[in-house]
Amino acid sequence: MNKKIFEGIPCLLILGIIFGYLGSKMGVANMMNTIMKTAFDLLLNTCFFLMAICVITGALGKILSKFGVVALFEKLLRPLMRPLFNLPGTASLGACLTFLSDNPAIITLAHDKKFARFFRKYQLISLTNFGTAFGMGLLVIVFMVGQGYTTAPFVGLLGSFCGCIVSTRLMQWFICRSYPQYREEMACEVYSEEKLAEIKSEHEAKGLFMRILDAILDGGKAGVEIGMSIIPGVLVISTTVMILTFGASADGTYTGAAYEGVELLPWLAEKCSVVFHWLFGFQDPHLVAFPITALGAVGAALGLVPNFAAQGWIDDNAVAVFTAIGMCWSGYLSTHTAMLDSLGYRQLTSKAILAHTIGGLCAGIVAHWAFVLFA
What is the phi-psi region of residue 50: left when phi exceeds 0, alpha when psi lies from -120 to 50, beta otherwise? Predict the structure, then answer.
């Protein structure tokens, strides 16, 4: 009891400092309204969007798994996946799904035993980092091309690929260092040839239509569960990042609208702008808002780009770095906790976040220097 009382005092002090600072800048009423409205907008336009993605990709992944596509990927891509990511070839299916949708799609696959049986435990856990690095990749690239940048987004894709290698390998090293037994333990039961033949005969006995229907419904149901589990992380972390990144309304006043904030993070970035200029080639401190916002939601980060362009802050180099970091991070702070929790390895969340933070920074650095060489 005494320990809890002792812990409660600094907790109250920290919360008092945070909310006191925000309230003094925005006004208490406006602060509360902004927090609630931002969280509500994220719930409607981000969380439910991610849930829809999870349902669709869950159904698609189940179909691909039941009809042998997973095994085919395992055979074809093993020579590429093993040396680069230390993952079975079938992991490439997860990269494809997350690239076309969002990072939680990898967890829907990971829950499928026919997919997971190819992995050892440390490899399956590292899928949270591997899949996240490709999350919403197609959306990010198409958006940047639509803004008129044709070459820089593909330089960013190269950077994201390199960041994925760093993040995945580093996460695997963290896991094996803390839990050496995970290096040898299989992620799930490895079926014998007799068991696989029995399962195959049961599926074939149902007929093609029923097998497809079962796969769609089972995968979609798993997607709903995953979509529900990511809501807390998205709402809490993304709201916090945005209120610390964005500024007041257009006329400089606080109205309590969604996505207003105190611009603390850009202010801090300006103090060390030399570092960001050397690492990423950023010419304006406001550009740091993109990677910071991408920590919580890359969709929200993309919304900053048109305004950056209108202000004249953005160039091709920045677009390459934005693409690399946007893809590699893709809101991992708001989803990593839920993803690992759904896999049953919540205790490894801090290691996953640290590994992916380093991977995302490497992605941005590679994109910047690759663009310098390309230019």
Answer: alpha
Kindly give the interhelix angle for 231-245 and 264-271, rounded to the nearest 10 degrees.
60
**pLDDT exceeds 60 at position 126:** yes
Does the pLDDT of residue 88 top 80, yes or no?
yes
Place of tokens 């109250």: 12
**Cα radius of gyration (the chain):** 22
- Cβ–Cβ under 8 Å, residues 106 and 130: yes
> Does the predicted TM-score (pTM) go above 0.85?
no
Residues 170/85, Cβ–Cβ less than 8 Å: no
Give the 3-state DSSP-derived string for the chain, with helices as H, strands as E and coil as C.
CHHHHHHHHHHHHHHHHHHHHHHHHHCHHHHHHHHHHHHHHHHHHHHHHHHHHHHHHHHHHHHHHHCCHHHHHHHHHHHHHHHHHCCCCCHHHHHHHHHHCCCCHHHHHHCCHHHHCCCEHHHHHCHHHHHHCCCCHHHHHHHHHHCCCCCHHHHHHHHHHHHHHHHHHHHHHHHHHHCHHHHCCECCCCCCHHHHHHHHHHHHHHCHHHHHHHHHHHHHHHHHHHHHHCHHHHHHHHHHHHHHHCCCCCCCCCCCCCCCCCCHHHHHHHHCHHHHHHHHCCCCHHHHHHHHHHCCCHHHHHCCHHHHHHHCCCCHHHHHHHHHHHHHHCCHHHHHHHHHHHHCCHHHHHHHHHHHHHHHHHHHHHHHHHHHHHC
> pLDDT per residue over 169-214, tens digit each?
999 999 999 999 988 888 776 555 555 555 555 555 566 777 777 7
